[in-house]
Specification:
mainly alpha; 0% strand; globular
């Protein structure tokens, strides 16, 4: 099928954005699905690596003599560099070859995984993780950009459902796999197997990408437009926002002066918005077309997924730490508690991807309600059940959370990108991914700081188990707050859609 021309989209600050008609890449259905599964495998490798490292933090801290700040940076530093390059690479993928960027990102990810596996010190491991984040930021925007071009209509909703199922499995199985690798490799070097595991997976993905991914661009003589000043202002905004949270550990030694960087963040964001508007008025292509956020489905969906991903990773990490440190569970068993979440989310992501085309935003609302109930259940299980039974009850509650989570990620992704022009799919998807990554870093920092601050405050005054129960409750309080924000956004979006009389599939009325 020949690719139709997208309708133009204005990007000035005063113009309305006109959603373009989407199109598919002119290849056979079988070839499209093969390419899609390559994209999904790349995303799964990245997400799996993020979550399986969490369970290794106690081992890394003991073996490499890393303090709480270094351990925090090993997790959040990855997210920082990931977020810094997401949007520029999404923009570059929209203008040039996504397949080339896939291969470049995967190759760098392979090399940096070897660096992390061989790291003799915490400093070397941190550098490796920062570079891993860069590699992930190169490859990840191409995943959603490619999926946006490969499919349209109900087939796209189905694809996003399968994508969400795979990501849900990778997210929740990560701690289990990490714990198993630590058990196999032993307490000293088991955590290194977590990084060695990436090498064969990345090499296989590189081969499949070269073989199966289609070219989505013809050779162009036009120069790449990356808006360099916009890139610098954008980078400064991200660093100044995330830096205070990256150095928030909950320890009494945390420097309160770090919060002044949030003032710098406000200034950088203001300068970035002003520059992008000026750049667009001059007829150039800004780094982030601000007009995208005039599309209500994209704006609300992006806000929702940012709030959700501010909560979800913190929920997994805080639960894993409580089970390991508070209840003394072995890493592999602590990780297994989230298996139910993985399996349930895999099923409901596929179901949700099909339901969203007929029921719309209400699917996401019910999913968020399920996750909120599970957070309450996890806290109650930690506080009021026999410690011997707590992991089993937590696993059952996690299954409920997974059922809800699967109805959030994939349907929301379909609704968020449903009105975005195909040729901006990589950029639009990378902005959403940025919200997820920044949210994950901020949410993890907030939850961990509350968790450790409670331990520092109550140690010596209460029984050890009570201290960790209180720490877990305070950490999960932040998770509940961010999930509530996502729920509110979902309700607002649902109400607005019904008021406009939109069809349930989420299609925005076309502007002539």
């Amino acid at each position: 099928m020949p690719e139709s021309e997208p309708r133009p989209m204005k990007t000035s600050c005063t113009a309305r954005v006109v959603p373009a008609t989407t199109a598919v890449i002119p290849i056979s259905p079988a070839a499209r699905w093969r390419a899609f599964w390559v994209c999904v495998s790349v995303a799964a490798i990245t997400i799996l690596d993020m979550t399986k490292v969490n369970v290794a933090l106690p081992s890394i801290g003991e073996v490499l003599d890393a303090g709480s700040t270094e351990l925090q940076l090993i997790v959040s530093g990855f997210v920082l560099t990931f977020g810094l390059v997401l949007v520029p690479m999404g923009r570059l993928g929209d203008q040039r070859s996504r397949r080339t960027l896939f291969v470049v990102g995967l190759s760098l990810y392979t090399v940096t995984s070897v660096v992390c596996a061989l790291a003799p010190t915490a400093a070397v491991l941190l550098v490796g993780r920062l570079l891993q984040g860069v590699a992930a930021g190169i490859q990840m925007p191409q995943v959603l950009g490619m999926a946006q071009e490969l499919f349209q209509g109900k087939e796209r909703a189905r694809a996003f459902g399968l994508f969400g199922a795979t990501i849900g499995i990778a997210t929740a199985f990560g701690p289990t796999i990490g714990g198993l690798l630590i058990a196999l490799g032993g307490p000293t070097d088991g955590w290194r197997l977590i990084f060695w595991m990436n090498v064969p997976l990345c090499l296989a993905a590189i081969g499949l990408a070269l073989w199966l991914l289609p070219d989505t661009r013809t050779r162009s003589q036009r120069p790449v437009q990356l808006d360099p000043i916009g890139v610098l202002l954008f980078g400064a905004s991200i660093v100044s926002l995330m830096w205070p949270f990256l150095f928030t550990t909950g320890a009494p030694t945390d420097n309160p002066a770090r919060w002044w960087l949030l003032v710098a963040f406000a200034l950088f964001v203001s300068a970035f918005i002003a520059w992008e508007r000026r750049y667009a008025r001059r007829g150039r292509n800004p780094l982030i077309p601000l007009g995208l956020f005039r599309i209500s489905s994209y704006r609300n969906g992006t806000l929702l997924q940012t709030a959700y991903f501010t909560a979800a990773p913190a929920m997994f990490l805080t639960t894993t730490l409580f089970l390991q440190i508070g209840l003394g569970l072995e890493p592999v068993y602590a990780g297994m508690v989230s298996i139910g979440f993985a399996l349930a989310s895999a099923v409901t992501s596929w179901v949700g991807g099909n339901l969203v085309s007929t029921h719309g935003r209400v699917v996401v609302v019910w999913g968020l309600a399920g996750v909120l109930v599970s957070v309450i259940g996890l806290v109650l299980a930690a506080l009021y059940t026999d410690p011997a039974w707590t992991p089993y009850i937590a696993a059952a509650v996690m299954t409920l959370g997974g059922a809800g989570g699967g109805l959030v990620i994939a349907p929301n992704q379909a609704l968020t990108l449903g009105d975005i022009p195909v040729k901006q799919g990589g950029l639009a998807g990378s902005v959403g991914q940025l919200g997820q990554r920044v949210g994950a870093a901020v949410g993890t920092a907030v939850a961990l700081s509350l968790f450790y601050a409670t331990i520092y405050r109550e140690s010596g005054t209460h029984d050890s188990l009570v201290v960790y129960q209180d720490a877990y409750a305070f950490g999960m309080l932040s998770v509940g707050i961010f999930l509530s924000l996502a729920f509110i956004v979902a309700i607002v979006d649902l109400t607005a859609r019904r008021a406009r009389g939109r069809d349930v599939s989420g299609e925005e009325p076309r502007v002539p």
